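Subject: Interface between my chains keeps coming out wrong

I've been trying for a while to get a sensible model of this assembly. When I model each chain on its own everything looks fine, but I need the whole thing in one frame so I can look at the contacts. Pasting all components below, labels as-is. Any help appreciated, I'm running out of ideas.
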Amino acid sequence: MSDTYSPRPEHKFSFGLWTVGNRGRDPFGDVVRPTLAPNDAVALLGEIGAWGVNLHDNDLVPIDASPSDRDRIVREFKSACERHHIVVPMATVNLFYDPVFRDGAFTANDPQVRAYAVQKTLRAMDLGAELGAKIFVLWGGREGTETDAARRADEAVKRLREAVNYLCQYSIDRKYGFRFALEAKPNEPRGDIYMATTGNYLGLIPTLQYPDMVGVNPEVAHEQMAGLNFVHAVAQAWEAGKLFHIDLNDQVSGRYDQDFRFGSANPKSAFFLVKFLEDVKYDGPRHFDAHAYRTEDYEGVKQFARGCMRTYLILKEKAVRWNADAEITALVAANGSNAGLPARDALLAQNFDRTAIAATGLNYERLDQLTMEVLLGVR
Amino acid sequence: MSDTYSPRPEHKFSFGLWTVGNRGRDPFGDVVRPTLAPNDAVALLGEIGAWGVNLHDNDLVPIDASPSDRDRIVREFKSACERHHIVVPMATVNLFYDPVFRDGAFTANDPQVRAYAVQKTLRAMDLGAELGAKIFVLWGGREGTETDAARRADEAVKRLREAVNYLCQYSIDRKYGFRFALEAKPNEPRGDIYMATTGNYLGLIPTLQYPDMVGVNPEVAHEQMAGLNFVHAVAQAWEAGKLFHIDLNDQVSGRYDQDFRFGSANPKSAFFLVKFLEDVKYDGPRHFDAHAYRTEDYEGVKQFARGCMRTYLILKEKAVRWNADAEITALVAANGSNAGLPARDALLAQNFDRTAIAATGLNYERLDQLTMEVLLGVR
Amino acid sequence: MSDTYSPRPEHKFSFGLWTVGNRGRDPFGDVVRPTLAPNDAVALLGEIGAWGVNLHDNDLVPIDASPSDRDRIVREFKSACERHHIVVPMATVNLFYDPVFRDGAFTANDPQVRAYAVQKTLRAMDLGAELGAKIFVLWGGREGTETDAARRADEAVKRLREAVNYLCQYSIDRKYGFRFALEAKPNEPRGDIYMATTGNYLGLIPTLQYPDMVGVNPEVAHEQMAGLNFVHAVAQAWEAGKLFHIDLNDQVSGRYDQDFRFGSANPKSAFFLVKFLEDVKYDGPRHFDAHAYRTEDYEGVKQFARGCMRTYLILKEKAVRWNADAEITALVAANGSNAGLPARDALLAQNFDRTAIAATGLNYERLDQLTMEVLLGVR
Amino acid sequence: MSDTYSPRPEHKFSFGLWTVGNRGRDPFGDVVRPTLAPNDAVALLGEIGAWGVNLHDNDLVPIDASPSDRDRIVREFKSACERHHIVVPMATVNLFYDPVFRDGAFTANDPQVRAYAVQKTLRAMDLGAELGAKIFVLWGGREGTETDAARRADEAVKRLREAVNYLCQYSIDRKYGFRFALEAKPNEPRGDIYMATTGNYLGLIPTLQYPDMVGVNPEVAHEQMAGLNFVHAVAQAWEAGKLFHIDLNDQVSGRYDQDFRFGSANPKSAFFLVKFLEDVKYDGPRHFDAHAYRTEDYEGVKQFARGCMRTYLILKEKAVRWNADAEITALVAANGSNAGLPARDALLAQNFDRTAIAATGLNYERLDQLTMEVLLGVR
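Reply #2:
Try treating it as a single job with all components included. I did that and got this:
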């Protein structure tokens, strides 16, 4: 039974295999849910109305699978995707789980590790391409340190650049057509992770060999862990033409990576995010990189995943309402304008009456209260 | 009486007028120290052995000064600088104190405010050039929001770009030869400030009209407020050729802007910072953007300022010692190397023994403990 | 024109003189609003429908007022309160603004400062009693350090205890009938403030001479600055019979003290707070210790103050709705019960089937999603 | 070969089995070190010069061990302890790893879980008593929520109190003589953990049935996760006679639980902590609740553990040096005194010259700089 808040394919809601398949292991506790086979995850996503599924190489293919096992697994997975009308918009590579990556992957001190990490990524690109993905996400979860005695941080930047250039060349050579989306995170599992924020990656990209092929994949939780305003980071990426993908979830600031259900920690910032994405007509996937509480069974996992999509759609409707609210619109219009700067000599000659300009209130308290009332559904 | 830790001009230690002149006002309390006239601040800096002084326009010239007053003030200030052998390596503009900037300066919604902000900056550039400064810092303290209802964040980026382009053009036209250093901060005094981290500015710069003229001015406290590893941000900026200036102080994470004496909150991260700057032979100013505790009189202010420089020099000596320590050197050498990646086909054909690679410990606990012992002076 | 969300006296909404009278000064900027005389603040509060006003001694009476000036000011203020039907439920003392308190008040190292702080508080108690206040709040904003070299932290605890005991004795002697409410804060304006959380004060109170006279005044922003769950702190205080007062506002974690409009930073935690206060029938004042954005004039200040109350009432209605929601009620009922523990020997003999107990999901994702939908007004 | 910084039994350095036995599993990665059998851990601790070992029940005895297996394991462990001259000063219980505790233990909604948690703790107390432990630590890692819809927070307090009372009664009945040490943590693995700070437990204890039997076990990392000053919390606990145990490690604020080597993240706060413990002659165990980086093998684990003890002893020597430094001593003496407050009438009659009192600086910048120089070994 469908309603306004029911997901449809055009909403482009996707989930990682690792999200609905998360088994609830944490630093202090064991797994609480049985393994969910990838094909069963796809079935679950089909059931709840998702559009796409994303994956790390090893979410689907075990790290030591033989080539024939690998091929069979991929074939069956593609078949499951077709059966459940699920696409694979994005693929990525796991460079963090295996002990070999304990000191990093592309930035590890050991050249063998760096080479292996790149080789593993090339194969993950082969896999992603085979599954039809056009976006390739790189999250360097182990690219960091617990002590800066271990490595000069500028060396890490150089190694990272060398690796990303290598991957771009491979995509070109193989005609995969990938767009790479780099995902920042400030810490965890490393004490500090290089490229701590989306901004750091926006700074790295112009120094790459193929900057046009590379953008960012901002994640709500990762930016909010550092207490940063996520919408501002997304807006800068968007304005630079670099918003290639987005990871939606929720997070309380200054804590471990929580990956909560979208909108469940702070619905106000989630509202501004949805409003921004819809206002600018972002047309990429809305990927939920979150997982269910450890208190849940797979029925709860479905509730979790449904909740992510439903909350997005609730907030989307509120964004429409906000844009249509006459009082809000009037307050915003009274706010100012985008008029450009005067020419230099005119500007230098101008006299400004600072006191007069500063005398009138800007009505932002009212504007924000109205926003809250739209959000809370009482307006 | 001089010793190893006494400041000398070649150390390029500079202080802002607003740092030694800070009067101890805070959100909950009144000023505790009398006004320190700019020329007296210069004398104080001369007395304690500093090399340079930096200033916002209104640190020296009152916002409503007449042209003739302005000229007299500048003349006397230059004379004081000469008398005390103090240079002015950097100038900046105050776009945050006056109520006119309560909603931003370059990004304010009111086009009048944006125009006034740019005009004020042009005049601050005139002032800086007259004083011999070659670096112009831009810190947009009011460029932000308390509610994102007030402004689309991508509009703010566009307005900021327009303003910086305008300033670059002016420097070119006037042949001032300025290099602009953009200074990020995540919040305070605004709820959220745009361009929250040094990374965000590194991302903005390549989108400017004159990217070569523009770099960053990372500040310890600003990056650490967000809990980010400052050395990593500095290293990325350095590697990109964008470390045009640096603001040294200290800060406990997740708090109000504390601007503590350099090295006094976390000597370990200060050590890695000094080591990085010295290892790469950064030759710009070491600017202390800090201030004395509110418990101090001007004798305490001198102690504070002396402590900033002395701690830098102590840590610099420890960096030399670290680099020369045979056990440390051996551990670092055993760590790995910068060997490049194999060519593609060779790489794809390679077999890696993950288990073998991951079997040996990396001795980072030992390396870090040795670092601590160098730092604590017991090695 | 009244509606469901209009404030009424029985809601016990109060504001500090310093909240609606906040002039927008911050560490980087000047005041933006003219002084609001206390009697005008009372008129403003009457106009917007508040019930009570609270004050620090010097919010009303200048620190150097003569006795006759003091008496006249108090007389006129009482008259204004009567005229506008505003009560004074709580009084407090300013031990943070004057430079004399730069190193603390009750915990300062200088015995003269400690004595003066207590004397000032006794007089503030006289004032509060004269105005009819029955709650006396103590916020030790300067009781802390920038360096722990300055004072042994256990000495600070002893000094604090001595002072509070002294004040209790005075209230008894003068038959003022005060209940003291101690207000914690982790930092700002000091680097670290002693008694950082509400919990620390709950730990101090049982060690006092008159523990029954002393409770706590938790503040949303102060607990959230440290990233703590405010509802948990309030619940512990309530359960211990120590919730003597409460300060409502909002705050993003890990930042400077923001004192935002109630519910405007995180409506979800505000919802759980209101629900708790209403569920347990807390009948003390709902005090808003917040202030308007610096972008506002006094029209905006009114909007701000109205918004605080209105949001409280919106959330109160949602709490009623949540409690009445059949699906929510069923999920909560299925959650478990308050059954006591078995007697020891029975317990030791019992066999538990851990696997069976852990097999069923707890439906907290569903429960939380329903909560969000009540909050967002779509249920 | 022994030196000043070599551990000796009188230093009372202890490690948990789970600390040196930590295998490096984290939320994003697999174990990196093989299992270290408890008896081998004891041998390792003997080798590096530790005094004691602590344990959760299941660190030693598997959760499903038969009684006879349990007895054999315990017997062999005691023998290993004797062989290596290691004592067991503290025991605790694991109420967080098994899925049965996914919604809490003492505070779980399911009465069966609460009962099982208490039963498991009684047996862990039997085990601890058998091993000679006199301190029993309770860390309620799962006592919390991801959504406050799940449970009223005051109910959690009541359940916690019931459980602790039950355990105290059991210790009395069995004549175990345990002192219980309650360990706070703000979050992780739960979204929010009840009793977030040491202060919260200091507030709970006076409401228990046997308050004298119960104290606290503050942990550096847990208090610093919330950005709180750890020394202040320890000092309050000490002053209240409640410092029954302490967990030493290190942690960067506002992050996941890092459990770094003692003193390695912030040596300055570690210095003030060691100085406090030594100044007040704390004579309980110095327990290191930390673990080696994931980059290490067991040689690195030993380096890690040695580093914890060595850094403690280095800082202890610096505390002696600080106390003996004539300039420091003079500055502290000039600081003020512990003189008590004047009697009421005398106090009310006193005139204070605020301006004069506030005119002189307090030399805290100098005092802190000298502290840094002692810490850095250049004084």
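Reply #3:
Confirming on my end. Strands of chain D lie at 13-16, 52-56, 90-92, 135-139, 144-145, 179-183, 192-193, 214-216, 247-248, 286-288.
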